[in-house]
Amino acid sequence: MEKLRLQSNTHVHPVVEWLLLTGNRGIIALGLTGLFAVFFTVLGFLGAVPLRDMQALFYAYSGLISGNITLITVIVSINQLFLSRELQTPGELQTQIENIIEYRKEVEQTAGEVAPPMPLGFLRLLVEATRQNAQQVGGFAKDGVVTSGHEELDDVVLTITDRMDRIDTHLTGSDTDTFHVLSVMLETNYAQQIYKLRVIRAEHGDDIADVALEAINNLIHQLQDIDVSRQYFRTVYLQEELSGLSRYLLYAGLPSEAIAIAALLILTVPSEEPATVINLQLLLPVTLMIGLLPLAILCSFFLRTATVTKLTAATVPFTTPEDERL
């Protein structure tokens, strides 16, 4: 699928975008561990690591062992905090479900169709209904129904229509998982468009026919619905992402701990033996690379979650400079 740029107005480099948002987290983690291996190998060949005193290696591997245990424990604990939000009483769960159903009914009533259960289909329905309503408002501005402020209204409608068309184009070839749907919705929270529509309604309301005012009110409500869905899908994505991160850290953490402990035991071989230093020149990069794998996985996942959180920090009617740079 063709990805949206993180900040299309500032022309973020595709490599930076891939690293922060669109790239496969596993590939990025393996790339980081590969860089670790190359770095330690180069140090060995340059003679910067003579390996005459094994005490420093004892400290390094001991730190890896204790650090990985702490890292895995902390991340699993954070994941449990997120999952604890799902442990609700029947009454709380019923209220949450009723609120979600009520939100879906509002979207369906505006769109005139039954909303699909999958995020991709739901968002496409919401975007299409918003685009049609925006075109209706634009038609009122051109047909003379709006006698004052029609130029400002036409500019807002043009912006909204253009963005809805671009989002629909990306959704057409999008994957169905939560993150790919959310990545399309990172473009903006439409706070500026809602603000401009409200200003037009307040300043020129007396010169706008009731049917056009109703269409403007519906358009504002639909833009707010898009932001509600964006924030909800972000919550679902973060829960899925942290659950996956905890699982991958456990998968990588156990082998990393075993390798680090094995390397620490190997260091008990007397360092006077000539072959020991030669073997350590090869053993050191490999064991350190595996020992740092959990940290690389954490960095790769948190690069994306931090980026998504930053880009979706504001909720309408408010916005942030980061949102407006999109």
CATH topology of the largest domain: Butyryl-CoA Dehydrogenase, subunit A, domain 3
Kindly state the number of beta strands: 0
Helix content: over 70%
Report Rg: 27 Å
Strand fraction equals under 5%
Instruction: Give the biggest sheet.
Output: none
| Helix and strand element order | HHHHHHHHHHHH
Instruction: Provide the structure class.
Output: mainly alpha
CATH class of the largest domain: Mainly Alpha
What is the average per-residue confidence, as pLDDT, rounded to a whole number? 80
Structural write-up:
It contains twelve helices and no strands. Helix 7 (178-184) crosses helix 9 (210-266). The chain starts with 13 loop residues before the first helix and ends with a helix. The chain is elongated, with a radius of gyration of 27 Å. With 326 residues, the protein is mainly alpha-helical. Helices cover 76% and strands 0% of the residues. The protein has two domains: 14-85 and 241-312; 90-237, Butyryl-CoA Dehydrogenase, subunit A, domain 3. It has helices spanning 14-22, 25-45, 55-84, 90-111, 119-142, 150-172, 178-184, 191-204, 210-266, 274-291, 293-311, 321-324. The longest helix is centred in the last third of the chain and has 57 residues, at 210-266.
